[in-house]
Design goal:
- This protein is mostly helical.
- It has two domains: 16-55, no CATH class; 59-128, no CATH class.
- It has helices at residues 46-55, 59-74, 81-99, 108-128; strands at 16-21, 29-34, 40-43.
- The chain has a three-stranded antiparallel beta sheet, with helices on one face.
- Helix 3 (81-99) runs antiparallel to helix 4 (108-128).
- The termini are far apart.
Length: 137
């Protein structure tokens, strides 16, 4: 049997370990667990378990996807590279305001929210402006 590659944990970058376990309802099932944060997945098929583990995304990526969907529902596409850049810069400036706060008083959840908004607007910029039609405006 070939050895299957396990990516690091998408949540904490910890090393993952795979085990074959027995259960009442199936002959065996495969568990993959992060050695650091202990998050895990399980599946009856070894290759499926590995595929599920290796394709999971971090909560920050999921939050950015949600932010993109909300932005698209609320606002039209960027009209030009200049407009897209100004919106992206506004989000970066808001993140910078959070970064400048003293580390002991910093609101980490607010800083995370601003970082996710920067990621979302960066993706919108890449998708909506960086093509031959809109990128030349």
């Amino acid at each position: 049997m070939r050895k299957l590659h396990l990516d690091v944990c998408p949540f904490c970058n910890g090393k993952a370990t795979m085990n074959a376990d027995k259960c009442i309802t199936a002959n065996s099932f495969w568990t993959i667990q992060c050695d650091k944060c202990r998050v895990c997945i399980a599946d009856a098929d070894e290759e499926t378990a590995v595929r599920k583990w290796n394709t999971r995304q971090s909560p920050a990526i999921e939050a950015a996807r949600h932010e993109i969907a909300n932005a698209r529902a609320s606002w039209p596409p960027f009209n030009s590279a200049h407009e897209g850049f100004s919106i992206l810069k506004e989000e970066v400036d808001e993140l910078w305001d959070e970064v400048k706060v003293n580390q002991k008083r910093r609101d980490l959840e607010k800083m995370r929210k601003e970082a996710i908004q920067v990621a979302a607007m960066g993706i919108r910029f890449a998708e909506e402006v960086c093509d031959e039609i809109n990128g030349r405006k």
